[in-house]
Amino acid sequence: MQFKEVIGNGGLKKKLSSMVDGGRVAHAIMLIEEEGWGGLPLAVALAQYMSCPNKADGDSCGTCPECNKFQKLIHPDLHFVFPVNVTAKSGSEKKPVSDTFLPVWRELTIRNPYFTEEQLNRELGIEDKVGNISVAEAKEILSKTNMRSYEGGNKYIIIWLPERMSQEAANKLLKMIEEPFSGTYFILITHSPERVINTIRSRCLSVQMLPIEGNGANGEVSQYFPIISELLTNCLAKKLSAMLDQNEDLVNLGRERQKEFCRYSTSFLRKIWLTKHGLEQIAFINSEESQTVRSLAAALPEPFFEKAFNHFEGARVGVENNVNAKMVFCNLTNLLFVSI
Ligand SMILES: [Zn+2]
User: Fold this and answer.
1) What is the CATH number of domain 225-339?
2) Angstrom distance (rounded) from CA 250 to CA 96
3) Which side of the chain, N or C, has fewer Cβ within a 10 Å radius?
């Protein structure tokens, strides 16, 4: 993956390449993004740039043997860590680690590096479970960082969603992330920096990414857009029973999709809020959303927003903690209704 293949974030790519050129790369970098913004391809492009012997004009050459191995994600010193869980695909292994699923991960990343957590879970076959980065994984990382690099150059550990790391796993990794062996680089990609264990977060150089214009890489409107716009419209019209009827659809989504719905609703509310405050140019509104966003921005009262953000976040946490979905969404509906 070359920088030029990564969509958007041009300024950031320049910053990263000049960091490499100046020999000032931090040993642990945390890219902060939202789903679909391209943190993963950017991380791979950075590692490839650092390893390419023929880099020029702020990008890797894309054709040398090193670049070739990065393009196929098979470079022996490029390691991926991501949340996993026990599934049919993990076979008889009791404690699967990322490497158990490496072929699936590579195939998905090459096909569409802007995938969401939900898409990954579907590929791994763990739709109804939460993936996690376990102690077994942390041990695996430590043994990799203790080995000499295969090709005599740098070693890269790309950790996708460090917020899924257990406390125990984080404790094991702390020292290595703080003082890695020379030539070892950690690149973390998070969607929720506030949920990354603080001791890990504080040891990384945080880099904020920007959204790709439109909505995600493909510019398609989210499947949750009709649900949330109807919910907010019903809420404005004080139609509580219509809102409660909508709960049925939400309850049937399944846990991972319910969380995705909550996350999308929060970002949708942010777009409405920005539009209300005349900041539409940084709200990255999809053309299909645009009319609804504008009319909701005109109609929703200012105090509603902060309350609604909290209610959706509370619902997401409820789903994550296995609270009964009917209760979560009934509660959410009532809270939204009284907040308007
Ligand atoms: Zn190259």
Assistant:
1) 1.20.272
2) 31
3) C
Question: Global pTM?
Answer: 0.69
Distance from residue 11's CA to the centre of ligand 1 (Å): 22
* Ligand 1: centre distance to CA 72 (Å): 13
Kindly give the distance from the C-alpha atom of residue 216 to the centroid of ligand 1, in angstroms, as a whole number.
28
Three-class DSSP category at 25: coil
Looking at domain 3-208, what is its CATH homologous superfamily?
A: P-loop containing nucleotide triphosphate hydrolases (3.40.50.300)
Helices (H), 198-324: 198-201, 225-236, 240-251, 255-276, 287-299, 302-320
Give the tokens for residue 205: 């150089």
58 alpha carbon to ligand 1 midpoint, in Å? 12
CA of residue 53 to ligand 1 center, whole Å: 6
Q: What is the dihedral of CA 19, 21, 24, 26, to 10 degrees?
A: 60
Distance from residue 154's CA to the centre of ligand 1 (Å): 14
Tens-digit pLDDT profile for residues 60-97: 999 999 999 999 999 999 999 999 998 776 666 678 99
Integer Cα distance of 46 and 72 in angstroms: 15
For residue 173, the CA-to-ligand 1 centroid distance in Å is 31
Residue 203 alpha carbon to ligand 1 centre in Å: 30
190 bridge partner residues = 32
Encoding tokens for residue 40?
Answer: 């993963």
Rounded Cα distance between 115 and 217, Å, is 9
Least confident of 53-62, 70-79, 186-195: 186-195
* Residue recorded with tokens 């645009």: 290
- Can you tell me the distance from the alpha carbon of 39 to that of 58, in angstroms, rounded to the nearest whole number? 18
Domain spans of the chain, in order of start: 3-208, 225-339
In this structure, what DSSP letter does residue 166 have? Answer: -
